[in-house]
């Protein structure tokens, strides 16, 4: 690390950014001493106990992992983390209490995938697509305080997206912003440790917010035999692209749920390309339409 000091880092990581940011950090030679992530959870129809991706990656690279269910037992947590110099938080699903945020010598810093104070909250990447914020995508490295995405800014970088590549699919924007965030984090940590960064308070009056996504948000109200055009087509495309991967988009036709995988605009009209009809395999949208009565 450029600061010339050996800094002991604990990395709090969740999905979808936790692994790619950690990869970029390790590429730069900044390797956390401890990885914190969610406990293993039952997944799928068979409810098989499954480790989160951050844990899998960390164990594959011989990194120590801790999976606390909560931080309510203060004495246990302090005993585990008291010797760390810096905490790094990336898409971690738990709220850290103030005493924990302030525990390490150099505090706690966070990678947030928006240009704060814009889009504070749980879904900044998908909301930026949904709200058509083409020129306002980027990442912020922030010093955490006790409020959500409220702390002072240490570094910030805008992601340049060509007009022809917009609107981007959510999973693709996840990848681009996590890589950018990881690279910016790797540059920022040595400067922060060396005392070369003066935190800049956010302009709280300009703050905007976004909430958590759930599956019900992905429903499209469309007629597959008469797809929308004009602004309605574009707004529908934004939703399809924003919810790519999770929560996904779908429409109901003849009491069947049809999952939409991708679409584009052609001659001012929405063109759906691939779908998965309920109970069937993935197919071209045209093939699906031909099956309708």
Structural account:
The chain is an alpha/beta fold and 293 residues long. It folds into 2 domains: 9-210, 3-Layer(aba) Sandwich (Rossmann fold), CATH 3.40.50.170; 215-290, Formyl transferase, C-terminal domain (Methionyl-tRNA Fmet Formyltransferase, Chain A, domain 2, Roll), CATH 3.10.25. The protein has helices at residues 18-27, 53-60, 74-81, 98-101, 124-130, 170-193, 230-242, 285-290; strands spanning 9-13, 34-36, 41-43, 48-50, 65-66, 86-90, 108-112, 120-121, 138-143, 153-158, 209-210, 249-253, 256-266, 269-277, 283-284. The strands form 4 sheets. Strands 5-2-1-6-7-9-10 form a 7-stranded mixed beta sheet. Strands 12-13-14-15 form a 4-stranded antiparallel beta sheet. Helix 5 (124-130) packs antiparallel against helix 7.
Reported CATH architecture of the largest domain: 3-Layer(aba) Sandwich
The count of DSSP E runs of length 2 or more, i.e. the number of strands, is 15
Strand content: 15-25%
Tally of structural domains: 2
Distance between the termini: 65 Å
Number of helices: 8
Defining key terms:
single chain, about 290 residues, alpha/beta, Methionyl-tRNA Fmet Formyltransferase, Chain A, domain 2, 7-stranded mixed beta sheet, 4-stranded antiparallel beta sheet, 8 helices
